[in-house]
Design brief:
The protein is an all-alpha fold and 297 residues long. It is built from 13 helices and no strands.
């Protein structure tokens, strides 16, 4: 893999040309696939999709090298002029960058799997969200960060907190020395970030007004549907609430919007990658990305 990384650094002019994506990413992906086979993959389809992407891009590189070896005389010595090579390297770098962040890190991979499962549940409540994902509607990229934050607020001690921490590190306190990455992920947030704590308190108040309290599924579904379709449509399939609670939900969603924007803007590259990963896991199949293509030098 060291040679592939070096080749990528000199020939991949369409992306960053990174040479620091190592074999540990492939090892992590293979470990995920082995674990999925043992466990049956239930509830962790997102992990399967991402791990298959890493292994698939590696296999595609190997296939390219085998084929190009039989026609080496056609290879342009200016490697960036070989369209087939560049296409393979672009796919390899993009896929392995995702693998480096989300497959190699077990806490982040668990967070992605958990969040994808929650978004699928939200799609049952608000079918419009399924259409947005399938069409990559521009509205999806307004709705998606809201859902990420609502999932976080619903259970800030859950593994999904690790994803929000990675996107908004300045909002979380430092880990205690020697603490594991996945140990009580929400503890630092509750102690340190007062603005985030205030948002959580507002969320709890709304859940109580809706009659279920925090972690009540019916109340959460009503808020999520309203976040997807808008407050004016809250009655269309998402349940009803009394006027006082309805106003509180609307206030919560207004308070949530700056956080949604911060999630997108604090590090736009990280958020763009995260949202692409979520959409890919929601709409993709573990085997669909790496289809055989016509060989080109």
């Amino acid at each position: 893999m060291r040679h592939v990384a070096t080749l990528n650094s000199v020939a991949n002019f369409k992306r960053k040309g990174r040479d620091d994506l190592g074999c540990d990413i492939l090892d992590s992906a293979r470990a995920v696939l082995r674990q999925q086979q043992q466990d049956g993959g239930r509830g962790r389809e997102a992990a399967l999709v991402l791990a298959c992407d890493v292994v698939g891009s590696y296999n595609a590189m190997r296939t390219y090298f085998r084929k190009v070896g039989t026609c080496i005389e056609h290879v342009d010595p200016h490697l960036c002029n070989n369209a087939g090579l560049v296409a393979r390297l672009v796919d390899w770098e993009e896929t392995w960058e995702v693998g480096a962040r989300y497959v190699r890190s077990a806490p982040l991979l668990d967070a992605i799997c958990d969040l994808v499962a929650e978004i699928r549940a939200a799609q049952q409540v608000a079918p419009e969200l399924t259409t947005m994902c399938e069409d990559c509607d521009v509205e999806l990229f307004l709705v998606l960060p809201r859902i990420v934050m609502l999932c976080f607020l619903d259970d800030p001690l859950n593994k999904r907190t690790e994803l929000v921490r990675s996107l908004l590190p300045h909002r979380f306190g430092p880990r205690a020395e020697g603490a594991a990455a996945d140990s009580q992920p929400g503890a630092a947030f509750m102690k340190v970030d007062l603005e985030l704590k205030a948002l959580y308190d507002q969320y709890k108040e709304v859940m109580n007004l809706l009659g279920g309290g925090v972690r009540d599924r019916a109340a959460w579904e009503l808020v999520v549907r309203q976040a997807v379709v808008g407050s004016e449509e809250h009655r269309s399939g998402g349940g009803e609430c009394h006027p006082g609670a309805q106003g509180a939900v609307a206030n919560l969603l207004r308070a949530l919007e700056p956080w949604s924007l911060e999630l997108q803007r604090h590090c736009p590259e990280d958020w763009n990658q995260c949202s692409a990963v979520l959409v890919h896991c929601l709409t993709g199949d573990a085997q669909q990305k790496k289809q055989p293509c016509k060989f080109q030098v």
